[in-house]
Design a protein that fits this description.
Layout: H1 4-15, H2 25-37, E1 41-43, E2 56-60, E3 68-74, E4 86-89, E5 92-95, H3 103-121, E6 128-134, H4 142-146, E7 156-163, E8 168-173, E9 175-184, E10 188-189, H5 200-210, E11 214-215, E12 220-229, E13 235-236, E14 239-248, H6 251-272, E15 275-284, E16 287-288, H7 294-305, E17 311-314, H8 320-326, E18 330-338, E19 347-349, H9 350-366
Pfam families: M20_dimer (PF07687), Peptidase_M20 (PF01546)
Family: Belongs to the peptidase M42 family.
GO molecular function: aminopeptidase activity; metal ion binding
Length: about 375
């Protein structure tokens, strides 16, 4: 019942609407109209705790049962995401090469819309569907973090935001800590009296060199991703800013690694006579779903019904699913065939768009049993 020409046309339309993080308004307006045309009650203002994030929450009442199911995709894309020109060739959709495609996550949006369209056109029985299109996912899951989950009736659902063939499902994902540090040294003339200065960049480099970075074990990683400082080559820099992260499938390991990096920064600054201000923040928490949970069982059974290979995987990346699982809504992240995301080589197969919509429709049907 999935209409290949229709889902492809809609996907091509969506990727051509600019929606880099923080600039999702045009896409949100289009999706509000589209959801209302499909018979859903749409709520924008009032579904966020801060009233500003711009998430969309749409509800389709149940037909034939009383339970609800949660479906989610995010509206924002990474840069370069302005002026996307999609190209369809040999059954593959890619960008023209100078931007990302934006299948992450407009493919997820198109798949959800197509599944609902089929349900409505064929008057199919279904659980209540609560559709959330979030903002700011690519810059720290901001929309999901601000969504007022008290408005949701669903106890479980699916995020459509993972690479991997249809039938892939993320059942374990890590926690992430952000580390931001400002090292304060002392300025001096680099050629006349450098011994009177304290080089903040040198302090930072010694601290970073002492850190264990990269893959630390099969569950844990750490990274320093940004460093800046200094005003001129003839001035001993009096400040240096660095930003990093830790991740782990084990929350205790993540917190311990964060504490170790903070301790190194403080000890190194003290050794050089500098000062350091460090701020850490847990951006999201880990989750691990049991294969026996209904959300996982429904997805596995639906995959098997369609002849797909169920693959239960763990990932090193976070998604909106981390936020919802932490807030008590059991959430599986589904693979929808996205490839080489966050690059100008990003692509998706038309067949995977169609199969993913069939798969979501089957999950909805199985949830009725």
């Amino acid at each position: 019942m999935i209409n290949q020409a229709r889902i492809l046309t809609e996907f091509l339309e969506l990727v051509q609407v600019d929606s880099v993080s923080g600039q999702e308004e045009r896409l949100a307006a289009l999706l509000m109209e589209r959801l209302r045309e499909l018979g859903l009650a749409v709520r924008e203002r009032g579904c966020d705790k801060n009233g500003k994030t711009g998430n969309l929450l749409a509800t389709l009442p149940p037909r034939g049962c009383d339970n609800y199911l949660f479906l989610c995709a995010h509206m924002d894309t990474v840069e370069p995401g302005q002026g996307v020109r999609p190209v369809v060739e040999n059954g593959i959709v890619r960008s023209s090469g100078d931007t990302i495609l934006g299948g992450d996550d407009k493919a997820g949006i198109a798949i959800i819309l197509e599944a609902i369209r089929v349900i409505q056109e064929n008057n199919l029985e279904h659980p209540g569907l609560e559709v959330v299109f979030t903002t700011g996912e690519e810059i720290g899951l901001l929309g999901a973090r601000e969504l007022d989950c008290r408005l949701l009736r669903s106890s479980m659902g699916y995020v459509l935001d993972c690479d991997g063939a249809p039938g892939t499902m993320v059942v374990q994902a890590p926690t992430q800590d952000k580390i931001a540090a400002l090292i304060r040294g002392r300025a001096a003339h680099a050629g006349i009296n450098p011994e009177e200065g304290i080089n903040a960049i040198q302090v930072a480099s010694h601290a970073i060199a002492a850190m264990s970075l990269g893959r630390l074990d099969e569950e844990t990683t750490a990274n320093i991703g940004f460093i800046s400082g200094g005003k001129a080559i003839n001035i001993v820099p009096d400040s240096c800013r660095l930003d990093g992260e830790t991740r782990s499938l084990n929350g205790a390991k993540c917190r311990a690694r964060t504490a170790a990096m903070v301790s190194l920064l403080k000890d190194t600054a003290a050794r050089f006579g500098a000062q350091v201000d460090v701020v850490t923040e847990t951006l999201y928490h880990e989750f691990k779903l049991s294969p026996d949970h209904p959300a996982v069982r429904f997805a596995v059974r639906a995959a098997e019904n369609l002849g797909l290979t169920p693959r239960l995987i763990r990932t090193g990346g976070g998604s909106d699913a981390n936020i919802f699982n932490h807030r008590g809504i059991t959430c599986v992240n589904l693979g929808i065939g996205m490839s080489k995301v966050h690059t100008c080589d990003e692509f998706i197969r038309v067949a995977d768009l169609v199969t993913s919509a069939r798969y979501l429709l089957e999950i909805i049907r199985v949830a009725m049993e």
